[in-house]
């Protein structure tokens, strides 16, 4: 196993990925993307699936590389971002669209103001979110997803540490993003998302499914970046990002746990979160996508270990290589901060 170094061959691709809007998302691969791109560049393939897309950055890299890209995540929020920047063949939000979104509340809705009063943002920001949503509702496809993605990015940036697990401003360190009105952060986010929209000449797609429901037939290469089962601690995305998940669909069809202080949504089960189910889930995943080249990311301080993963992959695949990316997580809860200096493995199985 060799420690990877960034290559100059893919510098151009990486330059185009650089402006991709950054969200503090647990396990996001912004820092690992250049290494992934180098590895992807060595493999002949035309179509690709990013099966656990999260922030969308890896699917975006595949799009930049000219591949026919499908992005999937079981969260609506992630899937909306992928629809806005990966499936979207070039539609942007014009100044008139933005003006319309900023026009007053057209239907008097106040769900966000009523539900989250005193929790995450000052009431003017909640009013802005209700009002913006009342106008976004009527936008055509891609403009709508871009606007929702920008609302979510703005909201995440106005939360200390980007998560919605705390309802007081005790972490308010006076940073600019925490003080600016959400409306201003939204305008910045619109610009950022607009700037990365392009057509790569392929029919790209965003799905919102459980990974095990995806038909594996259509992909030459599948990138797997499941949640890492931590030895202690938890890795629940809903607990951290419930507000973004709700906001992405205006909480329609979502069940708020009313007795929680954070007004979080019901947890979504995934077998990748637990030590007792992770090995079987990985085995099932490798079996499901056995006909494709599989590229799997996993972190060195999670279970199962590198050798156990190799064993699982070898049950289906003859040729497996492992690469190591020295990786310092930018995300950190207190206990995660202690696990910071971990490496990221990239398994490539053909
Ligand atoms: C490690 S993150 C992916 C990060 C992503 N590669 C990035 O760069 O931002 C794992 C993602 O898997 C999603 N997920 C977890 N279980 C899933 C399942 N059973 N089916 C589909 N997506 C799932 C989570 O919502 C989360 O976004």
Automatic annotation (TrEMBL):
It catalyses: a 2'-deoxyadenosine in DNA + S-adenosyl-L-methionine = an N(6)-methyl-2'-deoxyadenosine in DNA + S-adenosyl-L-homocysteine + H(+). It comes from Kroppenstedtia eburnea. This is site-specific DNA-methyltransferase (adenine-specific). The keyword RNA-binding does not apply. It is an enzyme of class 2 (transferase). Its EC number is 2.1.1.72. It comes from the Bacteria. GO terms for biological process: DNA restriction-modification system; methylation. Keywords: Methyltransferase, S-adenosyl-L-methionine, Transferase. One of its GO terms (molecular function) is nucleic acid binding.
């Amino acid at each position: 196993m060799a420690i990877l170094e960034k290559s100059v061959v893919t510098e151009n691709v990486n330059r185009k990925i650089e402006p991709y809007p950054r969200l503090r998302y647990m396990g996001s691969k912004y820092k690992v993307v250049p290494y992934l791109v180098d590895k992807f560049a060595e493999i002949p393939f035309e179509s690709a699936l990013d099966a656990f897309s999260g922030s969308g950055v890896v699917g975006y890299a595949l799009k930049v590389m000219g591949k026919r890209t499908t992005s999937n995540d079981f969260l609506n929020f992630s899937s909306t971002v992928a629809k806005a920047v990966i499936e979207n063949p070039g539609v942007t939000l014009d100044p008139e669209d933005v003006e319309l979104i900023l026009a007053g509340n057209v239907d008097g809705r106040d769900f966000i103001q009523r539900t989250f009063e005193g929790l995450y943002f000052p009431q003017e920001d909640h009013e802005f979110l209700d009002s913006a949503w009342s106008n976004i509702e009527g936008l055509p496809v891609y403009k709508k997803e871009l606007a929702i993605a920008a609302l979510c990015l703005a909201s995440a940036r106005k939360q200390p540490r980007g998560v919605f697990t705390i309802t007081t401003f005790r972490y308010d360190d006076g940073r600019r993003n925490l003080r600016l009105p959400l409306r201003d952060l939204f305008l910045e986010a619109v610009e950022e998302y607009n700037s990365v929209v392009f057509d790569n000449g392929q029919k790209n797609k965003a799905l919102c499914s459980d990974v095990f429901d995806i038909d594996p037939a259509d992909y030459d290469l599948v990138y797997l970046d499941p949640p890492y089962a931590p030895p202690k601690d938890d890795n629940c995305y809903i607990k951290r990002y419930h507000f973004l998940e709700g906001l992405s669909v205006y909480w329609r069809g979502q069940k708020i746990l009313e007795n929680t202080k954070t007004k979080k949504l019901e947890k979504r089960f995934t077998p990748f979160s637990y030590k007792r189910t992770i090995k079987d889930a990985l085995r099932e995943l490798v079996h499901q996508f056995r006909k494709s080249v599989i590229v799997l990311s996993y972190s060195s301080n999670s279970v199962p270990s590198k050798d156990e993963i190799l064993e699982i992959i070898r049950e289906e695949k003859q040729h497996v290589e492992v690469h190591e990316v020295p990786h310092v997580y930018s995300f950190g809860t207190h206990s995660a901060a202690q696990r910071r200096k971990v490496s990221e493995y990239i398994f490539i199985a053909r």
